[in-house]
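tool=predict chain=A
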Amino acid sequence: MKIIITTCLLFIYHNALLAQVNVQNSGILYIGSASDTFFVASSFTNTTGAALTNNGAFYVKQDISNGQASMAAGSGTLFLNGITAQSVNGTQSFKTYNLVTNNAAGITLNNNLSVSGTHNFVAGMITTAATPNYMIYEAGSSYSGSNDSRHVNGWVKKIGSTNFIFPVGSVTYERPVALINLSAAGEFNVRYSRTTPNRVSVYNPLVYVDSAEYWTINKISGSAAQVTMNWDNSKVSFPGFMLTDVKAASYDGTFWRSIGGVATGSTITTGSITSSSITAFNRNFTIGSTAYVLPIKIISFTAGRMNDYTKLNWVIGSELNVARYELQRSDDGINFYTISTQAAFNRNSTELYSYDDRKALNGTAFYRLKITDMATQINYSHIVTVSANATDKLFYVITNPVDTKIDLYASAAIKGMYNYSIANTGGQIVQSGTVDIKNAGTYTIYLRPYLAAGAYILIVQNETNRLQKMIIKK
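tool=predict ok
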């Protein structure tokens, strides 16, 4: 059932009208003053030929739709405060003076929603459809209350000449960006996205751009402005740039180019940078660096001879901005060739990689890592060796990462009583004991149940032999 308003005029003065069913306005709906309330417990539709003016309090619990061209913003407040997901629909922008969004289930904009006064984020995300549709802030408007759980996931439009921080982000985090010092009134559209495209296409003096996030800023009208971007390592991992090297960057369709700026804050925690004044928009923006990130931390790089092959492991700490690893071998210690290529994870965490080299071994084989970063800079690891007779005194960890236990293989040549210790990366011993190697075979160290997932150093030793190994506990 619907309430259809078809009379010429419906005035609401100094009282409240409560509707428990869908409401359709096909005439004139006028909410007269701040003391007047119009409450729709279901959905509301403002048709093409209708006229709606809200100078009071207009509550809608479900969807709203507008077909009226040039709808008046009025001087009242629209409350979208449903308890199930709501949507804004129609063919013409739904306009209001003030707006309160208070729906933990979220609001989807399948049509533009325009605010001329103030917008109060109370609860829930606003998601814009990909058409695109916009959360519009008219000249002189403002908002308050946005945070990680309530902001705009999608497009925000701002009209006017004043500084403005766009309340954009992903579903998980608010990641705002600001336009400041506009030289003229203008209209700008902004959206936040993850995973920076074309991030290796950088132009001097830039050598890096942040690979994790970027903002699209389109200019519909206006002139120059400055862009202020920020980072927050507690939300999205930020590269280990030196603060003095940080610059604002924009993508011109071919290269990421520096647009200047001086950064403030700490690259370990939070900070921001404001670009130079620019006129070129309709492109993507992110944060870049004019110097290379500090070399990656190789926690360990080891080679061990099994019965008929060589097992190579390498552990990388705080891995970020690495393009790939090339494992290289040399049979003479001089000329190296690539035997395996592996792409990096780049999760800014400790990572374990391994490879089994099954090529025949005559004498000694030499191994190194060729590490290529996102800016195509190349670094090399130290060299490790394996000899053909290495199995005479074989002592190694069979599988790594581990779960509840560490399995060791020992040859008969190294039998004896051994002490072992397991330490965390801070050097604190978290478990210790003994291993009695009586014959060639497998020996097990059971891990204490309280050991958390992460990286540990295992040392097994006696007076004559020693095994030291980085262990990754799942």
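Residues 2-289 form one domain. The chain is about 0% helix and 50% strand.
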